[in-house]
Amino acid sequence: MKRALMGLVLVVGLAWPAAGQIRKAREGGLLEQDPDVVYLDRHFDESFELVVVKEAPVYSDKAGRHRLGTLKADQKVKLEALTERAYRVRGQGTRDGIAGWVPPWAFKATWEDADFVAGLKQLYQRQQEVKKLIAAREVAVGMTLAEVAESLGQPTRTQVRRTGKGQSGSWEFIDYEEVKHYVAVPDPLTGVVYQRLSHVTQEERGKTRVEFADDVVTAVEQSESRRGGGNVRIIVPPVVFGWWGN
């Protein structure tokens, strides 16, 4: 199984459709929905299918407290979301169509790959790290540019280099703060000197520079005043499910 794509993107070699590429973050951000759930349509353009190998209970909630019905065996269902312990799927119940949370033991992939579950767990764990970074307005090596924009907003400056092999460049985010300037003015009657506001300037407080290649962050440089000179964080690059069959 291949482990790198363009030298940067970690690949879990599952036989999902070829166009299963990373989807850019939608307007509103990752944090609008349940933070414990990874919604696949937020990250991929293709829908994913699983084979139901055993009848299984379907629940309305991820914790499995409220049962909706039973998922029939020997069918393909659409995988919509996942947590560490359950998958949200849409398929055929014993009576009618049904959608809800089902335990993972009921499924296998529509392809032969022993790393299927490991790949989904890795995707889940990565997205939880990304959500924490975005909530803290932080960036890390391995994030996508869409995730960086969701965390820090639009860059102050951009530099992009395009070649036949791909795209690289850098984004700069500059923090400014208002600085008030005063002048000493004597009171004409009493002679007492007081401070009077003369003007306000915008001065740079700190800067973060993000280098990237093929939309994935490869380096982060932060000024001392912005982050206190802390270590640059690193996360697993985006998990891309691609077709590596014949």
List keywords for this structure.
four-stranded antiparallel beta sheet; 40% strand; 3 helices; 246 residues; six-stranded antiparallel beta sheet
Commentary on this structure:
The structure is a single chain. With 246 residues, this protein is mostly beta strands. 13% of the residues lie in helices and 40% in strands. The protein is built from three helices and 14 strands. The strands form four sheets. Strands 2, 3, 6, 7, 8 and 9 form a six-stranded antiparallel β-sheet that branches. It has a four-stranded antiparallel β-sheet with strand order 10-11-12-13. Helix 1 (116-135) runs parallel beside helix 2 (145-152). The longest helix is centred in the middle third of the chain and has 20 residues, at 116-135. The chain is elongated, with a radius of gyration of 25 Å. The two termini are 13 Å apart.
Order of helices and strands: EEEEEEEEEHHEEEEHE
Number of helices: 3
Major sheet size, sense and barrel closure: 6 strands, antiparallel
Distance between the ends: 13 Å
Computed CA radius of gyration, to the nearest angstrom: 25 Å
Task: Give the helix/strand layout.
Blueprint: E1 11-12, E2 38-39, E3 48-52, E4 56-59, E5 67-71, E6 75-82, E7 87-92, E8 97-102, E9 107-109, H1 116-135, H2 145-152, E10 157-163, E11 166-186, E12 193-213, E13 216-222, H3 224-227, E14 240-241
Parallel strand pairs: 1-14
Antiparallel strand pairs: 2-6, 3-6, 3-9, 4-5, 6-7, 7-8, 10-11, 11-12, 12-13
Brief summary of the model shown:
This protein has three helices and 14 strands. It is mainly beta.
